[in-house]
Amino acid sequence: MSDDCHSTSDLIDELLGYWEDWDKYERHYLGLLSQVVAGKRVGSYDVRNVVRRLRERLSPEEWTKLPQYVADRRDGRAVIAEHDARLMEQQERKRDFIRSVSLALEDDFLGAVEFRRTDRDSALLTLEEYEQLKIEFVQQWEGRTLDPEHGLDPQQASAVGAVGGDIEVVARAGSGKTHTLVARALFLQKHCGVPPEALLLLAFNKKAADEIKGRLRKALEGDLPHVMTFHALAHALVHPEEELVYDEDAHEGRQSRLIQDVIDDHLQSETYLPMIRNIMMSHFLDDWETIEKGGFHLSIPELVRYREALPRETLKGEYVKSFGEKLIANTLFSNGVDYKYERSFRWSGVNYRPDFTILLGERRGAVIEYFGLKGDPDYDEMSRDKREFWASRDGWTLLEFTPGDITSRGEEAFKQHLLDVLRDAGVEHRPLSDEEMWQLIERRTIDHFTGAMRSFVGRCRKRNLSLDELEALINAHDTVSEAEELFLTVGVSMYAGYLDRLTANKQEDFDGLMWRAIELLESGHGRFVRDRGRETGDVKNLRFVMVDEFQDFSEMFFRLTQGMRSTNPVVEFFCVGDDWQAINGFAGSELRFFENFEEYFSQTRRMLIDTNYRSAVKIVETGNAAMRGRGEPAKPHRADPGSVLAGRLDAFTPSVSELARHDGDELTPAVLRLAKHALDRGRNVVMLSRRNAVPGYVKYSGEPYRGPDGLPRFEEHVRSFFPKEDRKRITVSTAHKYKGAEEETVIILDANRGCYPLIHPNWVFLRVFGDRVESIEAEERRLFYVALTRAKDTLYILSEQARFESPYLADVRADMQLSSVDWSQLAPVPSLDGARLEVRVKFSYDADRNEQLKALKYRWNGPGGFWTRSVMADGFDLDALCEQPWAQAGVDIEVCSESGEVLEVRRVANGVGRR
Prior knowledge:
Elements: H1 8-18, H2 26-37, H3 45-57, H4 60-64, H5 66-74, H6 81-107, H7 109-118, H8 127-145, H9 154-160, E1 167-171, H10 177-191, E2 199-203, H11 206-219, E3 226-229, H12 230-238, E4 243-245, H13 254-267, H14 272-285, H15 290-294, H16 300-307, E5 312-313, E6 319-320, H17 323-334, E7 340-341, E8 345-347, E9 350-352, E10 356-361, E11 364-370, H18 377-391, E12 396-401, H19 403-409, H20 411-424, H21 434-462, H22 467-475, H23 482-504, E13 507-509, H24 510-522, E14 527-530, E15 535-538, E16 544-547, H25 555-567, E17 572-577, H26 592-595, H27 597-600, E18 605-609, E19 611-612, H28 617-626, E20 635-636, E21 643-648, H29 656-662, H30 667-680, E22 685-689, H31 711-719, H32 724-727, E23 730-734, E24 743-748, H33 773-788, E25 791-799, H34 807-815, E26 819-820, E27 836-842, H35 847-855, E28 859-861, E29 866-872, H36 878-882, E30 892-897, E31 902-909, E32 912-914
């Protein structure tokens, strides 16, 4: 029976029932009650429970009289009957008040907010009870009006019904952010009677705006509220006569081409071309030891931590793992030595990738190993094993170096020492001239420079900087390298050229358009017209503005909202986003607006939507582990655990047929196995990379590729191994581009140090705008979270070796137990060109016979103790094989399928193979 069904007298009677010896110990029990009233925890559990229920029913004044009430009740007096009557009357008043509030929510929801604040009877209903009434009301309304199948959860309903001030909603990945945003607009329009012209929904890109508009159109029969991007609003306010130039969805577009035109002009200049060459050459040759010189206000522990996140890019364009590797790579490149970085070799069935491989002919060459961790017992043992490995291989020379070789000699002397050692090993070389080097790196270098300059010009525009303001900013900035100083000098000229070209061409870019819209709003002009007059509105008439992806706000967007408020002081902002998915700092977004919402908006309230409806339990837990201690974690809605597995590529052993098809490329067969496993179970696959390239060596084959290089080429490559009907079920994307999307199976290709985090070397050129290693590294962690949380059912996280694993993956491992990919349980992808067989030759101990097998492209499988080769099944003749010269007495020949199943075994006797 509930407490509402008990009178105060009933509860006191229950209490006295525990004290049957009241007559004997009355003073003791009265003393206990006095202690309880004073707040002390005394008495048995049952007694305390009754006293707690009494405390909830009595007013503070009545509570102090509890001992007297108990004594009076024991003596048979009914002095508290009056209290019970008052309580019943109060409960009836509360029920009446709840009914009146419910009616107010039904008849005038927006007015009910003020009703709750001002009504003198509102003391009957706590704020928590009132909020619960609103939540239940919104849920019931949405269920009967919009989508009974996918109703709002309590957090979503609370956000939908939140009015009265500016609201910030933290919406974790997969939590139904768009559903909540759309439901709020529909609720305000359909239930609260807010006219559509008083509602504005703002998104950052056209795709998001179109999705919101499409959902609204399905639920609304008449006029839609205003839905547009920020830039569309600016255009509708300004109506520029100039031609607009912009890059659609961050891809190449007219704005990029315009900046490229300015860059091309400078590349033709006798003044600026040598400067640009000098910038990029010194930029590639400099190393992050400049951090130690500049310090960047980091402590020594921070310096060590962030240096590991700073990739070294060589003149050739590879990202190497240390200063020593970069010095060796640049020395080889600048002296015309053709080398492969981390080329794969098979070593006892394991993938081994030495630092540098220089091929000198068929099955011979020189290998350079930079032993950077000398002194570590495990590392020293591995180094000894590598020496033994190369000593056993005819035609190969191992050249090894350590950091001490550089520090003892100095950089210039070490480079000469390296060249001398190379010449002694038979590696010819000659120094390239500056012109020869420039010709080799010009295209890639100009691409690098162009990307950095586009970012520089874009950041200037987002700040609305004049040339004088830019020069003042640069003059107040301390550069840390010659490359940075030269870049800023050239940057001023290019920014001036860009502005001049806009004016001369009668063009405007989106950022300039935004700042002109801000000026109009601040001057009181708020009328906007779109779609050739078919959509009109006025900021002065807006009541509610809803902002999607609020974590991507910047000073420019904030100024626009403030301009709206200056024109319309009563407008309320509803801002939805996820600080854990703030990954656009490179484009000028600033998380301070999200983190310090109350400093920038008025009458603020922060709400949370944390239930992930997208992903299975383990995937949600993995994302939380990556972001532990950085905010409220997400909660899984689904009950199924899903699957999260970490895969080490150095533990992957390709089959013989995979070795034959991919020849040194071990990434492709590994991801093909994962993709096949998913496709066979009816699940689509997306592979995510940090960069627009995949890590390691990929052996591309087939028809000449004519599309853009990088991930598009790798996507076509991976798809080519599957039947045509399955190819569209596989996608390859960068983690950045896949934000906002989801897939059943996600494969993260590169959870490596140097990829997560990847602090691009060009960040130095943007230090003038306040970019710092710390903030970039924090954004890299959020990007890793985005990649993790794209998965719905299955997540694979691939890395190279334990010592090169991303620190973010290490944090996940420290927080939870991750299962490992069992590569042996994943079947290879069969060849589309026809089935293949594996031939295994066992018990071949004769040296001459083994040389014959090696010449016929057989490989030695150390762990298995046999020679092996992949052949096409079509036309294979075992009898003919047994007649080859190496097939002598005592040799066993096994024929296996691609999956390793033994199909047939022959023992060779007297030179003739028999069953």
